[in-house]
Amino acid sequence: MIFTVITLISGVGLLFTLSLHYFHGLEVKTEKDSAGFSLKAYFSWLFKSIPGFFKTSWSKRCRDCWKKWIVHPYPKNVRWIFICLFCSFFYLAASGFLFALLFPRRLYGFPLMLHVCAGGVFAVSLALALVLRARSYVFSPEEEKTEKNSSSTRSRIYFWLFIVAGLLLIVTALVMMLPLFSLKVQIDLFEVHRYSALIAVLAAVTFVYFAPNSKGR
Ligand code: HEM
After folding, report:
1. Structure pTM?
2. Residue owning the nearest CA to atom 9 of ligand 1
3. Residue of 88, 107, 182 with the most ligand 1 atoms within 8 Å of its CB, for mutation
4. Residue 74: φ, ψ to 5°
5. Under a CB-based contact definition with an 8 Å cutoff, are residues 139 and 156 in contact?
6. Could you list the pLDDT tens digit for every one of the 217 residues in the chain?
């Protein structure tokens, strides 16, 4: 029950914070000074934007995401790594959170078997993605001083947070499969797995939001 409450509060909290950040960015662009910024203005903008969000065709949205996240940044021979990472993470999060939040019993049967198989794909593609991308997300004080906007610093922070949460997910899943620990430890490992999953999803969403908007990164 606590996991469900924390997941809902952190999920809604993140969406509220990112949409507030986006709205504030819009305000700044229209050179409205901070005095012009009000929560009232924010909520009226939000309620006006939500219908528009569902109007844009999802096929166009998917095409744009495909181009921005797969085609432009990566050569053909490595794109499969990021496709596997995205698809395995998507299924793992969907199957894990659907059972954790909506079903009366824990992940079991065919969805669990697929979850473990997708877990294997996730572990391999995460390792390869780390080898390919880590260099672009290293923290270097010089660069940070010169960097105009802090969004790339934030991207770095959420990139590594995702990597650490992903590693915790892989390790807890593997250790849960070993017949070495007592039931109490198994239950604790399961909780660490679930909360690492929550951190991984929140970090992934925030990383995508702050990702610098550039071609050929
Ligand atoms: C190497 C990768 C992974 C493997 C092998 C794996 C394996 C498992 C297993 C075996 C369970 C069931 C544990 C039990 O009921 O005792 C589980 C539960 C869960 N997994 Fe994963 N997992 C992996 C990655 C992930 C990822 C990336 C996410 C989400 C982002 C995730 C989210 C969840 C959640 C939320 C549950 C709890 C489901 C429930 O409450 O019934 N897992 N995982």
Report:
1. 0.88
2. 173
3. 107
4. -125, 140
5. yes
6. 899 999 999 999 999 999 998 888 877 666 555 555 678 888 888 888 887 777 767 778 778 877 887 777 888 888 899 999 999 999 999 999 999 999 888 899 999 999 999 999 999 999 999 999 998 888 877 665 655 556 678 889 999 999 999 999 999 999 999 988 999 999 999 999 999 999 999 999 999 988 865 444 4
What are the pocket residues of ligand 1 if the criterion is a CB atom closer than 6 Å to any ligand atom? 89, 92-93, 96-97, 99-100, 106-107, 112, 115-116, 119, 122-123, 169-170, 173, 176, 190, 193-194, 197, 200-201
Half-sphere exposure (CA, 13 Å, Cβ side) for 37? 15
Place of tokens 């059972």: 99
**Ligand 1 pocket, mutate which of 8, 101, 162, 169 (most atoms under 8 A from CB):** 169
Task: Give pairs for 70-74: CB < 8 Å, separation 24+.
Answer: 72/215, 72/216, 72/217, 73/215, 73/216, 73/217
Tell me which residue has its CA closest to atom 26 in ligand 1: 92
Tokens representing 193 are 């797995």
Q: Give 137's DSSP letter.
A: G
Residue 30 phi, psi dihedral angles, 5° rounding:
-90, 20
